[in-house]
């Protein structure tokens, strides 16, 4: 058995021959074994690290230093400052001194009182030392101290020989300097320059007087030649109680990874029962590795998973898979689900469950690179049964793509393909989007003459789908623009022409079989975007600010073209937001180009700190005024004759580093009611406390309140929770409650979760447990990453 750790060995203390009398030279390589227990931070590093999280941040990185707020836990206090930090030990000489130097005879030397042996950053001190000039045997007694740039070591006795180099130490205590970590050993022997052994070894990052966890080994053998260490009868203890035992353990002595078992993951969910994963890591080569995930679920059976990662000079990627040969619960669950959803004509699937993910990014040269992202699951129920987040569980479509991207100083291009899989069991196969095989894009923008710019946006797609209309679409939009910009204003006129043509296949699926199979559309597009920026100084509550007033006008003119004979492959009408008030097309996709004789009127004001320019308040409101009816619509959508769009408003207030209020509102003047509303409040308190309250509303679609919190009860104890409730369906979308304990030595979290498993309204329960031994690793599910996604602004203490 092996730990996947990056153990860093300490170099031997190589003391050169330094004469301090005509016939005496000492070369004791004391503590050459150097206690190679320099355990680093866990090899299972989290996805990102970072500084303190700003108020309102949606994703907060993990702190880079888990001990940044911890006091020193010194086990030894004899550190001598001022030693050289760099240099070549193999070429350095050793300074030796003592209060008294004498000879027992012509062959034996005695050193007494403040014995000092130093080579660069390596320092050995003792009360007494002896040396045999013939045999090169030596001893050191009484407060034997050793230090270098990475650690301190004390022992009661040292004995050995300089030639050949051997050293034996008794009653060892050591402490790391570059990171937290300390421990003991009953004795240790350096057999030669490359081999050493220690007995009754301990290690922990905890304070010496509060050892919550401890790593223990009956013996540790270090093979510097093979750069590997071995341990026997190894245990992990928590509060003195052993909970893991390994009869044999191996680990690397350098920064190289080592094959072996990782700490297991344990969780419980209502759909999977007790869920145990025991990963095994394979260090195949310096630039690629693999991890095998044997997984046992009491409700479903045995699943095998794996991940292969690689890194080359030009590419990096990974391949992941899971395979469950027989899901014991799947057949019965399908029958229940089909009975709950009669009349939909849903399919049934085999009880063999699989998933596959392949990702690759390859740089071809300075201008071109390739990116591949392939995802596959065996059935639409997969995420419902094996996903652990609401986003994953309710994902309706699983996308895959592969592209070749190019870019230059004035152009961008791509060629590739996109396709999707349905992952919602309530959706029929006909709901699957069109595959784009291939999709080619080219965009360019370049100055032509005297500020006049020319550009083009183009796309070619071949749409494919079983039992449906298929075809190719070419969309080209060349344009000219003449932007005029300054600090206080901007004017951006643009004139373009959009041409779209089709070559349609599978015409038997057309609404009208006699419809033209090669339709096209050409339409000119003219727009002017203009704005002003006014500023004034302002004093509020004794603080100096700068207030801006930013009016903006956007005029768009697009003549009407009848597009009812054009197919709809990938075009949608998105939800209106503030940014869409200033676009040339209210549709997303080239199958429809909206007609327009519109004027957008918008106003923004900001409140900026006069000292540092930080934005404290931002408020915007805008509306599109329609001078002509909007005739172009998607199939099945009735034409509207409104005089204007919704009023779209945004308000963002950062009162200070502890409060943030955000409001988004859309008021429909045509129906005199709100269509969209969203309000969120975040408050930070104490050191790490967070309270988030949000309300989201979409008329006839969504009415939801979400409360999340991290409440520090004390310096070490915190409560975490979430309550996400739908006021439309009168049901809980997700709720969880947990407790976490965190100090400078260990952390653990226990979390109970109730969540919506799918869009059909089925729910589930889960219990998560995690314990982290800081400086070594963690056991259980990674709840911290889940909490950072669920709680706005969550960050570990």
TrEMBL record:
Residues 234-326 form the LPS-assembly protein LptD central domain. Keywords: Cell outer membrane, Membrane, Signal. It comes from the Bacteria. It is found in: Cell outer membrane. GO terms for cellular component: cell outer membrane; transporter complex. Residues 352-717 form the LptD C-terminal domain. The keyword Signal applies. GO terms for biological process: Gram-negative-bacterium-type cell outer membrane assembly; lipopolysaccharide transport. Belongs to the LptD family. Together with LptE, is involved in the assembly of lipopolysaccharide (LPS) at the surface of the outer membrane. PANTHER family: LPS-ASSEMBLY PROTEIN, LPS-ASSEMBLY PROTEIN LPTD. Component of the lipopolysaccharide transport and assembly complex. Interacts with LptE and LptA. This is LPS-assembly protein LptD.
């Amino acid at each position: 058995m092996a730990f996947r750790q990056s153990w860093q060995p300490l170099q031997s203390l190589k003391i050169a021959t330094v004469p301090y009398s005509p016939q005496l030279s000492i070369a004791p390589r004391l503590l050459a074994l150097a206690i190679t227990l320099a355990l680093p931070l866990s090899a299972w590093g989290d996805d990102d690290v970072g500084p303190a999280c700003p108020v309102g941040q949606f994703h907060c990185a993990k702190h880079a230093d888990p001990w940044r707020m911890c006091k020193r836990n010194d086990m030894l206090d004899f550190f001598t400052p001022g030693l050289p930090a760099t240099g070549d030990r193999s070429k350095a000489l050793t300074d030796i001194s003592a209060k008294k130097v004498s000879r027992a005879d012509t062959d034996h030397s005695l050193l007494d009182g403040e014995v000092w042996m130093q080579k660069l950053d390596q320092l050995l001190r003792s009360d007494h030392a002896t040396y045999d000039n013939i045999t090169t045997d030596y001893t050191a007694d009484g407060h034997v101290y050793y230090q270098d740039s990475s650690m301190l070591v004390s022992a009661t006795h040292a004995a050995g020989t300089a030639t050949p180099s051997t050293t034996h130490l008794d009653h060892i205590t050591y402490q790391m300097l570059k990171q937290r970590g300390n421990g003991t050993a009953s004795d240790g022997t350096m057999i030669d320059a490359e081999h050493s052994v220690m007995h009754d070894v301990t290690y922990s990052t905890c304070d010496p007087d509060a050892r919550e966890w401890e790593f223990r080994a009956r013996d540790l053998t270090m093979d510097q030649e093979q750069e590997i260490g071995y341990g026997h009868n190894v245990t992990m203890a928590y509060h003195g109680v052993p909970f893991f035992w390994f009869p044999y353990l191996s680990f690397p002595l350098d920064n190289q990874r080592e094959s072996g078992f990782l700490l297991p993951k344990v969780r419980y969910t209502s759909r999977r029962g007790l869920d145990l994963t025991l990963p095994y890591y394979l260090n195949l080569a310096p630039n690629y590795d693999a991890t095998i995930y044997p997984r046992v679920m009491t409700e479903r059976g045995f699943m095998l998973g794996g991940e292969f990662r690689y890194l080359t000079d030009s590419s990096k990627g990974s391949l992941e898979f899971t395979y469950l040969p027989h899901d014991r619960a799947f057949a019965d669950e399908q029958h229940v689900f089909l009975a709950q959803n009669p009349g939909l004509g849903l399919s049934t699937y085999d009880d063999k469950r699989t998933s596959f993910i392949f990702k690759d990014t390859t740089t071809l040269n300075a201008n071109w690179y390739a990116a591949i992202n392939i995802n596959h699951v065996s059935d639409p129920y997969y995420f419902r049964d094996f996903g652990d987040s609401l986003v994953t569980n309710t994902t309706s479509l699983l996308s895959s793509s592969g592209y070749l991207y190019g870019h230059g100083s004035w152009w961008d291009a791509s060629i590739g393909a996109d396709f999707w899989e349905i992952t919602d069991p309530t959706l029929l196969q006909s709901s699957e989007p069109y595959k784009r095989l291939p999709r080619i894009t080219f965009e360019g923008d370049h100055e032509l003459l005297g500020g006049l710019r020319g550009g083009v946006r183009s796309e070619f797609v071949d749409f494919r789908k079983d039992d449906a209309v298929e075809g190719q679409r070419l969309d080209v939009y060349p344009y000219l623009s003449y932007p005029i910009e300054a600090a206080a204003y901007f004017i951006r006129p643009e004139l373009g022409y959009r041409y779209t043509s089709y070559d349609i296949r599978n015409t038997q699926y057309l609404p009208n079989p006699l419809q033209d199979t090669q339709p096209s559309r050409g339409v000119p597009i003219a727009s002017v975007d203009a704005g002003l920026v006014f500023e004034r100084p302002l004093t509020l509550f004794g603080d100096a600010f700068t207030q801006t007033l930013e009016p903006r006008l956007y005029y768009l003119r697009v003549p009407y073209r009848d597009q009812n004979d054009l197919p709809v492959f990938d075009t949608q009408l998105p939800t209106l937001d503030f940014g869409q008030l200033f676009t040339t097309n209210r549709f997303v996709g080239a199958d429809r180009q909206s007609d327009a004789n519109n004027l957008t009127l918008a106003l923004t004001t900001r409140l900026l700190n006069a000292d540092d320019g930080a934005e404290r308040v931002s408020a915007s409101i805008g509306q599109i005024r329609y001078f002509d009816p909007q005739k172009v619509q998607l199939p099945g959508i009735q034409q509207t004759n409104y005089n204007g769009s919704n009023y779209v408003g945004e308000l963002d207030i950062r009162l200070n580093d502890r409060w943030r209020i955000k409001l988004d509102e859309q008021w429909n003047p045509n129906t005199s009611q709100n269509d969209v509303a969203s309000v969120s409040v975040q408050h930070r308190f104490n050191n790490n406390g967070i309270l988030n309250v949000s309300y989201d509303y979409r008329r006839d679609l969504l009415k939801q309140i979400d409360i999340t919190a991290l409440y520090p009860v004390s310096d070490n104890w915190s409560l975490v929770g979430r309550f996400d409730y739908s006021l439309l369906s009168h049901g809980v979308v997700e709720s969880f409650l947990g407790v976490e304990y965190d100090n400078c030595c260990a952390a653990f979290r226990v979390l109970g979760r109730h969540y919506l498993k799918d869009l059909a309204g089925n729910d589930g329960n889960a219990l998560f447990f995690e314990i982290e031994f800081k400086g070594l690793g963690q056991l259980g599910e990674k709840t911290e990453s889940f909490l950072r996604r669920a709680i706005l602004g969550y960050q570990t203490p």
